[in-house]
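Extended Data, record Formiminoglutamase
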Amino acid sequence: MMVTEKVSSQCEIRRGTSPIILGFPHTGTEVPPEIADRLNDNGRMLADTDWHIHQLYDGLLDNVTTVRATFHRYVIDANRDPAGVSLYPGQNTTGLVPQTDFDGKAIWKEGAAPNDADIAARLRDFHAPYHAALAAEIERVRAIHGVAILYDCHSIRSHIPFLFEGKLPDFNIGTDMGKTCDSAIEQATLTVVEAAKGYDGVLNGRFKGGWTTRHYGRPETGVHAIQMELAQSTHLQTEAAPFAYDAAKADRLRVHLKNILVRIEQIAPGLKR
């Protein structure tokens, strides 16, 4: 039986023997009191959480490894470049330690926004330990199979004018224009998405894969990475507080998510270098 282990105050790990690793950088809601005290009322809502995504994927694939950050992205964003380089130059986005929420509204009390020293401390205490744990699991899985596939799990509201126009597709596949994984993984995922009745999807649209996908996805080394950004309308009752999980919606969606993971796992043996 697989057991989830809280290996530190920064992340939880469930170790399995599948070639697939599920990453959850944005489902955590823990904020240390000294940081929470600096958030304003808007920030304390933690609205930009990837609500219930670890629950959505739970049990879809036997023996899959999971690595989940338990801290909130307002503490520090585990899916951003530690050097602070923008993922999408020229487009609105949030940074390593966000100054605003996804609507462009301030999340910190006046005069309480994190400074350079705060950011350096959070890189050391949160961002680095999460990625050390994720990198260790990738290496462990690659040692077993000769290949490791990181599937990074995300969600976001389907309407956010500050970040994108119109409605976001239900499935948003990111591979940094095919750079982060073998084309067979990309195509298998896209095939399931295109066949999913009642849903729409896009490959490398507004979301092309965050720092995690781009950093670890090195197919030539046997490590492949793909990001799935789901519109929250696919599995939440409403995309507003209290962001409640909709079991009926989720169950319909889980059929397709499982199909994606099973197909990717089947491909893995053929990806060995």
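Summary. The CA atoms of residues 101 and 107 lie 6 Å apart.
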